[in-house]
Amino acid sequence: MAIRVKFFASLREQVGKSEVQIEADESKTVAQVWAQVCDDAPLPTQLLMAVNMEYGHQNTLVKDGDEVAFFPPVTGG
Amino acid sequence: MDDTQLLRYHRHILLPQVDVGGQQQLAQSKVLIVGLGGLGSPVAMYLAAAGVGHLVLVDFDRVDGSNLQRQILYGTAQIGQDKSESARSQLLALNPEVQITVVKQRIEAEAELEVYMNEVDVVVDCSDNFATRFAINAACVHQGIPLVSGAALRWGGQVAVFLPAQKHSPCYRCLYDDRLEEAEVCSEAGIVAPLVGVIGSLQAVEVIKVLLGIGDSLCGRLLLFDAYTQIWRTVKLHKDSACPVCSQN
Lengths: 77, 249
Description:
A: 5-stranded mixed beta sheet, B: 10 helices, 8 strands
């Protein structure tokens, strides 16, 4: 098992991939997941996130088998 | 309804969920649309064509040449004209039975919108900035009026429905922190033309369902669309118990 991390819309372009998997050796927060997949970069403030398709925040806990999705805020009309 | 109307709305009336009663209900409905750009164009056109009785159109802006790639309410001849007036002409040509009220105003505060919300059944957010979106949300929460929210940029769009009269409905502020800086704008980031058609059409569908009280609305869900990969996702939303706008509601 592992944690699946998905990047949606313009984030997919910025990160350069739509999905990665990381080993889930221990429970971690969404912010820690981001840091692990993005070379220890801090979690951008301009970002929305979901765990198992439920809206979450940077401190939401993620465990083995979970899916974390990051997506950008959009205000254009 | 007379014979002409029965013919005009026949394909709606064929739907058992709409029928003559539902069509009459649409005719008695009043919908306020904020923003007459890329999203507001299809929303207003579909709602006018669908026979929503009264549309209140809010936009302060004029038509610019750079709008025409995606804002299908306008053509080359409308460049320089008020969007709201131009939209009224176009929508009345589409369906003369619809009553149109035009508001030429920039909305950045709750009170600026509230004066136009009398007897409004649904508000549609087609605006392009956080300040307007938060003002619309606060007004809808405090007036208990359903809000159908859409947004689009580059290749991606989002749609959500907020029903403040329902106890457990989140609001736009539960989703977006108002300390967020302004997200990118399409004049800098770009946008693929038909994306606003997709997102605006989804908004119009949700408006019709909310007006008729049918189907499963996107209340409590955020629909995400990535046109580039053609992937749709739905994220469950929860009411934020600490939300400064709706937690006291």
